[in-house]
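Researcher: Please translate sequence to structure tokens.
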Amino acid sequence: MIEEKPIVTVQDLVTHYGETQILNGVSLQVMPGEIFCIVGGSGCGKSTLLKHMTGLLSATSGHINYMGKDLSVVDESELSKLQQTIGIAFQSSGLFNSMTVGENVAMPLREYGMTDKKLIEGIVRMKLSMVGLAAAQHLMPSELSGGMRKRAGLARAIAADPPLVYFDEPSAGLDPIMAAGLDELILSIRKLMGTTFVIVTHELDSIRAIADHVLMLDLGKVLFLGSLDEAENSTHPRVRQFFERRPDEVITQRTMEG
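Model: Translation complete:
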């Protein structure tokens, strides 16, 4: 039996913004086809870690290995080629307001050298249909609801059939029903395409609905790394506090006294 290798490995990642250390020795592995959730409080380094894993930021030290390549040592040309195999769905959807939804979804295909207009149109229709936006191809982003924009952003992220998709706060700003629908969509895409997802989120309902493994950061360090079940049953005080949605006692006490 051939042992499956991680699609992404992060080893001893350290990064600074100026003199401030943001990540301190972060290590993790993401296996092909899994949904890996990065969680933690505001300012713990979640989004910074995601930017490093996509090759958008350079670290102070440490390594990120993607598809057998170390992103810290590849040249710009090879990094660009690797990034073409990665889909990114932004918290704000990242759609260009001057383009139609269909043009937004087609953009990565054209950027990566596809020129056959009929093929591009067919792929765009298929991807929009997958996310429930078959009728939205000719609409402008301003004509979409928040949930529809998230779905359109996801359609663009999967346009080129990437093996890996990074998603930053998919449920942010959505009502519970729309957020649940997006969770189901992520699970559906994983099932249909075998896509690996790395998702930054703080939404407990979403984590419980989609996560295979959970990484929890606190002050730039790995506080917990394991399965969702292990996270739910962790005895670590900060992990339990997160999954039980309990506020800091100091904050609660100050609020009561104020």
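Researcher: Any highlights?
Model: The first strand starts at residue 8 and ends at 17.
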